[in-house]
Amino acid sequence: MRKNVMRKWAVVILSSIFMVALAGCGTKTGAMNQSPENSSVVEADEREATEGNIEETGVSAGAENENIVLYSEKGSQDYCPLDETKYEPHEGTINATEDIPLYDGKGYCIGYIKNGSTVSITEYGTNAWSRFENPIDGTDYDYLYVLKDYAMDLSKLYLDEVSMKQGIEDYINRYGLEEIEYTFLNEKASDMEMYECRMDSIYDNEMMYTYWIGQQISNEEFSPFRYATLYIECEEDTDGWIICRIYYKDYVEPEYY
After folding, report:
1. Sign of the dihedral through C-alpha 54, 84, 157, 213
2. 21-52 burial, b for 16+ CB within 10 Å, e for fewer?
3. What is the pLDDT of residues 72-110, one digit of tens each?
4. What is the dihedral of CA 209, 187, 219, 199, to 10 degrees?
């Protein structure tokens, strides 16, 4: 299907961008092994760059709040090339299911978001990074940077199998044949036939979601609009897809044929 081809190309492109952004990054485990110090600001002397090292200046603090921890020293062993030059306001959120590394504007690991915490993202870059204002006073960072891959973009539409099932039923009721009053069963009947398709679980907006329902739930040989009795079944598949099965019976010949 055209959607599948488009998605495969999108995955290839995004994967390429993401791998470039991550080139040279240390492991997440290495970043998490540093122990934060709950103390006041620790002054650090400027250190001249030596051959093979990137210059580190300024101060950092061993500090934390309910959501994040900042190290007492920069995690120079965990470095990511942070190549973003422009950020735009963008609403997002991170619901951490693990400790998630935080970086400064030069790409050094400086702390982490605590497992179980929720943090609001306020700006997205054009490539792999997002950021938010540093909420801890007395520390030396205006913004804290985190990979976009961890953030949920709140401007998009996220669906699970329950909301997908409801969305398909609503679509059929809204765009179906006027002469049919559709009945959606709570369980499939033994005499029903079945049509199966796959839907993405994330869409840029409601309009795109509605468009792809129309593209995916029918083909040249089958249209759910022509059947009065339906049962919709959805289940999560791998890689962000949802399998949708439309069971149908009681064919109605459209009046305009």
Report:
1. negative
2. beeebeeeeebbebebbeeeeeebeeeeeeee
3. 877 655 778 887 788 999 999 999 999 999 999 888 899
4. 30
Instruction: Please give the Cα distance from 15 to 175 (Å, whole number).
Output: 37
Please give the DSSP secondary-structure letter assigned to residue 133: E
Task: Compute the residue count for the chain.
Answer: 257
* pTM score over 0.85: no
Number of Cβ atoms within 10 Å of the Cβ of 69: 23
Q: Extract the runs of DSSP E, i.e. beta strands, from the chain.
A: 41-42, 60-61, 63-64, 68-79, 87-95, 100-103, 108-113, 118-125, 129-133, 143-147, 152-153, 157-158, 183-184, 193-200, 202-203, 227-236, 241-251
H/E segment holding residue 216: helix 206-216
The span from the CA of 27 to the CA of 46, in Å, is 26
Residue 232 scores a pLDDT above 60? yes
DSSP 8-state class, residue 112: E
- Going by the DSSP 8-state scheme, the letter that residue 47 receives in this structure is B
* In the block, residue with structure tokens 């869409």: 203
